[in-house]
Design a protein that fits this description.
The chain is 31% helix and 22% strand. The chain has 10 helices and 10 strands. β3 and β4 form a beta hairpin. The longest helix is centred in the C-terminal third of the chain and has 16 residues. The structure holds protoporphyrin IX containing FE (HEM). The site of protoporphyrin IX containing FE (HEM) has 31 residues, from α2, β2, β3, β4 and α4.
């Protein structure tokens, strides 16, 4: 999605907002946010999903290999400033960080390019998505909303899990980290790199820390409610945190449009560069309200794949942004 299209999407959804009543004929993007509001509640000023987060800053420096894959200016080798938001899942802004529901954790990165534009990646700690399409994600949210604690067994959500085995499989790939810095994050949706020669390569992003440290459930439950949000700024006072930004390359025949289907582990991984985080923001809570990260906010040299979920995400994030900044 170009910057112009992003603005058009925002204005379009902003003007079309009918409130949060469920309308069967509402666009899918609105139905998704409506269902999130139903499952997680409406919390004024907060994101419909990944409501609780912390914003930090740093820079990205590309490796020489990155430019061979993509002509994007971000991979040119000069240092690019970044704004990063780490988050807990769900639209519940006071969810304890150690709760199982806070998985998967999110990482959203805004690369500030030399020409004044931005390009974003919005990734999380699931190795692959629970369902294949935006429609199925809506149906999963409907099943959750229709499965209160006193629902008859098997509940709607139990039935959905049974008919969509990728849901329990995907949820089985996440655990609570001991720090946002000790977690690996995955792009899940495929994008296409285009290099200077016009060669195209489908990729999926990975953001790999120096080490992954996961807590077991009992240990996670004992942690303070905001331990992840507080640990990162404290850690940054001791020194920077780094991640290795990588691209997993698709081989012939790998599906680029099914985010519930991971590519085999032996696919080539190319190091795109090192992301360094060195500064916490004193006004993180204020800053995150105004920030909008979009998976389709791209720059020349990076394109959307044929995965329709990317545009559905762009639309849903724009709806959520319009509602949290009325
Ligand atoms: C159809 C599928 C999806 C829908 C409908 C959806 C919806 C949303 C919405 C409405 C928000 C709040 C946006 C805002 O207010 O700014 C959000 C945030 C987020 N989503 Fe998704 N999402 C989907 C798939 C994914 C996938 C596949 C990933 C990871 C690869 C992901 C990672 C995140 C992250 C990290 C955030 C927080 C962004 C931030 O910090 O601003 N989502 N999502």
């Amino acid at each position: 999605m170009t910057n112009c299209k992003v603005v058009a999407a925002l204005v379009g959804f902003g003007l079309a907002l009918p409130g949060i009543a469920l309308a069967q004929d509402a666009p899918l993007e609105e139905q998704l946010v409506n269902q999130m509001n139903k499952v997680f509640g409406v919390h004024a000023g907060f994101r419909a999903n990944h409501a609780k987060g912390v914003v930090v800053e740093g820079h990205f420096k590309a490796s020489p290999d990155a430019a061979g894959l993509s002509r994007a200016v971000l991979f040119g080798g000069t240092e690019v400033p970044v704004t990063v938001r780490f988050s807990d899942s769900t639209g519940v802004p006071n969810l304890p960080d150690g709760s199982d529901d806070a998985n998967p954790h999110g990482m959203a990165v805004k690369f500030h390019l030399p020409d004044g534009s931005d390009t974003d990646i919005v990734i999380n700690s699931l190795k692959f998505f629970p369902v294949s399409t935006g429609e199925e994600f809506r149906d999963l949210l409907v099943a959750i909303a229709e499965s209160p604690p006193d629902a008859a067994k098997p509940t709607k959500v139990e039935q959905f899990f049974a008919s969509h085995p990728t849901v329990p499989a995907a949820l089985g790939t996440v655990a609570t980290p001991d720090s946002f810095a000790d977690e690996a994050y995955f792009g899940i949706n495929a994008f296409v790199f285009v290099n200077k020669a016009g060669e195209r390569q489908a990729i999926r992003y990975q953001m790999v820390p120096d080490k992954v440290v996961h807590l077991d459930k009992a240990e996670a439950a004992k942690r303070a409610p905001d331990f992840l949000m507080q640990e990162l700024p404290a850690r940054l006072k001791q020194g920077p945190v780094t991640f290795h930004f990588k691209a997993q390359l698709a081989a012939a025949g790998d599906s680029t449009k099914d985010p519930a289907k991971p590519w085999p582990d032996d696919r080539k991984l190319v190091e795109l560069g090192v992301l360094t985080i060195d500064k916490a923001l004193p006004d993180s809570d204020e800053a995150q309200k105004k920030l909008l990260f979009l998976p389709g906010q791209l720059t020349d040299g990076i394109e959307e794949s044929d995965d329709p979920m990317i545009d559905v995400r762009n639309g849903a994030y724009a709806v959520s942004f319009s509602r949290r900044n009325p």
